[in-house]
Amino acid sequence: MRSRRALGALATVVVAGLTLAGCSSSDDSGEATGDPKPGGTLVSAFVGETQSLDPAICGLVAYQRCSPIFGTLLRYDAENDKIVPYLAQSFESPDGANWTLKLRDGVKFSDGTPFDADAVVFNWNRIKDPATLSGALAATRGVTWAVVDPTTVSVTLDKPNYQFPWQLVRGLGAIGSPTAIQAAGAEVGTKPVGAGPFTVQSWVRNSELKLVKNPTYFEQGLPYLDAMTIKIVTSEEQKFNALLSGEASVANASNEVDASKMESNGFRVDEANVYGGSGVIFNYKNASLQDEGLRSAILHAIDNDQFVDALDKVAEPAEAFLRPGDTSAAYPNFDLSESQKQFDDYLKRTGKTSETVTITSYAGFPVMEQSSQLLQAQLQKIKGLTATIVPLEAPVLLSKQRQGDYQLLLTTFQSPTRDLMFDLFHTNGAQNTTGYSNPAVDAALETTRSSTDPAEVNKAYESANIQIAKDAPMRTWNYIDSYLVSDKDVQGVQIVPTGAGAAWDWEKVWLN
Prior knowledge:
By secondary structure, this protein is of the alpha+beta class. It has 14 helices and 22 strands.
C-alpha cells in the first residue's frame, strides 16, 4: 500500500504571518504511467446518498459529491502535509485573528457568474443564517467578513485561530454561484452550480450522479476526464463487488482487511492516515445520561478487544481518542464488576429498579449493524440494564444527531487534522452534538488554535486527549485509516483524506 502522509504537528498552517500562496494546485502525481491522456469516463462507487448538493450543506459532509462540482477555496495536500491554494490564490494572517483571502482573477462559475469576493461573502452569509441548516454554521461563530475589492475578502476572528484555514478546506470551502442559488430557491439542493472541474449532467437519488467536464474550468487542460459517474450502493460488500466486476474503477475503504483484500485482487491501494475512529457517542443532554455514574457503568462494560476481534481483526484497538504515545491517556477499562457496582449505585440513588438506553445506528451498513448488536450484548451483561437498537437511514440519523435526539449513537469521525478535537469536544465546537463540556479541555483546545509554538500545541493536544479519554464523551474502539482503492488503469491518483472518507484530486485523474 502506498502511504501518502506523515501528518506533521501543524500541517504548515500554524506559522506566524501565514501565507498560503504561490504554487499551482496541479502538480504532477507520482507513479503515473506515461503522459496523461484526456478523455473517458471514470466510475466510482460510494455507500449511501447525500441529502443535498447545496454547497452550504454538502461541503462539510459529502466531499466526494460536493468537491468535483464546487472545488474548495483551499486544499489539503496529504503527500506534503500542507494546505495549499486552490480556487483561492492565498489566505494569510499576521496574527491569527485578522485574515486576508485573495481570489484568483478571472475565475467564473460554470454559468458565467464571476467567482469573486461578493460570491464568497454571499455563500458565507448563507452558512451563517440558521435557516440554511448548514453543518458549518458553528464555524462562523465569532467570525466576521467584508468585501475589500472584487478579489479580496477580509476575515476577522474574535480570537486568534491558526487552524482556521482548515475551515476553507471543509465547510466554508465550497462556494456556489449566487445567480444559480437565488434562481433555484427551495430546490438549491438539487441544482448545484460551481466552479469546480465538473458540472452535473443528471442526478438520480440513491442511484447515480453523472458529472461532465466543466468547459470553463480555470486550470488550462484540466480535467483530463470527459466525465465521472458516482454510483450509490447500499453496502460495503456491494461497493467492492462493483470494483471486482468492473462496474466501478474507484472506491474508498475504511479498514485494512478490505484494503488488503482488494490489493490482493490486483487493485492499487493508497493510504492516508487520519485522526479519529469508530465508536459510540453519549448525549450529555439526555436526562438519564447526565448521570456520571450511569455513563461510567456503560463505559466499563465496553470490551474493546471484542469489537476488534469481531469486526476488523487487524485494526489497532483504541486506547484514547488520539493514539496516546507516551502519555497516560486511557479510556475507562473493561471491568464488568465495576460496571455493575456503578449501575447498582445509580439505581439506588435514583430510586429506579431498572434502566433502558437506546443505541441509534445506521441502517444498511453491515459494520454499523454488527457494532450496534455487539454493544447491545455487552451492555446487557449489566443486570437491570436493557439496551434497544434504533436503526435509521443516514439522513434521518444525521438530523437526529444534530438535534441531540438520541442517547447513545454509533458513528465514525475522521479528519486529516487534530483540529477535529476542537470541533467535537470544545463546548462551542462546530460538531459538538453531545453537549460535552469540560473547562480544562476547552482551555487546552483553545491553546491548539492560538499558539504558534509546535511544542506547546502538541502538549495541549496531549492534555486534552488525557481528559477526553477519561470522560469518554465518544468511546472509540478502533483507530481508523483512510484507503482509496482503484483499478490499475486509473492514473494520476492523489489521495485526499476527508471527514467522509478518502477522495482524490478529481481534475488530475486520467484513464490509461
